[in-house]
Amino acid sequence: MTLTRRGAAVWARIDRPGAGNACSAAVMAGLEEWLAAAADPGVRVLVLTGTGRSFCAGADLNEATALLGDLPALLSWLDRGRRLVRAVMSAGVPTIAAVNGAAFGGGLELLLACDVAVAADTARIGDGHLAAGQVPGWGSSVLLPLAVGPALARRLLVAGETWTGTDAARRGLVSEAVPAADLDRHVDALAERIAALDEAAVRRTLRVARPVIAADAWDREWRTLSEHIAALATGSE
């Protein structure tokens, strides 16, 4: 993970291209550091992106699988990612996902947690949990219906579809799709535009513009994931 200050924005770039920028414990630590940067009064925007052909392929399944013999440790590892997604949703400054490439599983959930998402037109976006024999746990079952409506959300969750950045923009999952070569420059301009606005007004607008999620929606998803993981760990399915 690399953190870069660009004007009033702090960019976090997940830098594990050989692993699809999967969300490992080290990446989670980097994302926590990125979120903490919002405490600096000179930071007005946080931007998240990836290196190479991936935005984020989701949770690091190698790390997760290594913990299957220690169920409490595995659930704690997964809960760290879940809390991180929710922390992005309550960041003290606006957050932008610059979706440069593949975004699946936890990568989709990080995208959904950001206030604004801009995708490369060639990006590939999907839920992907079922393809790995998993179920959502970091928010996609809760946040996707808010982004694209229940019908399209179920289609993306259950049918295993992959959308291009252009598809995602047309369906409201991201705000717009731009040529891949222009993505960073486009997001830089967007961050500058946000940073030029009245800081207090932006902060108060975030308070009313961000979705209010009922606690039982988060809890239902987490209970389902916990049951699924426990069944896998004990071989009871």
From TrEMBL:
GO terms for molecular function: catalytic activity. GO terms for biological process: fatty acid beta-oxidation. SUPFAM superfamilies: ClpP/crotonase. InterPro entries: ClpP/crotonase-like_dom_sf, Enoyl-CoA_hyd/isom_CS, Enoyl-CoA_hydra/iso. It holds the Pfam family ECH_1. PROSITE patterns: ENOYL_COA_HYDRATASE. Gene3D superfamilies: 2-enoyl-CoA Hydratase, Chain A, domain 1. Belongs to the enoyl-CoA hydratase/isomerase family. This is Enoyl-CoA hydratase/isomerase family protein. It comes from Dactylosporangium aurantiacum.
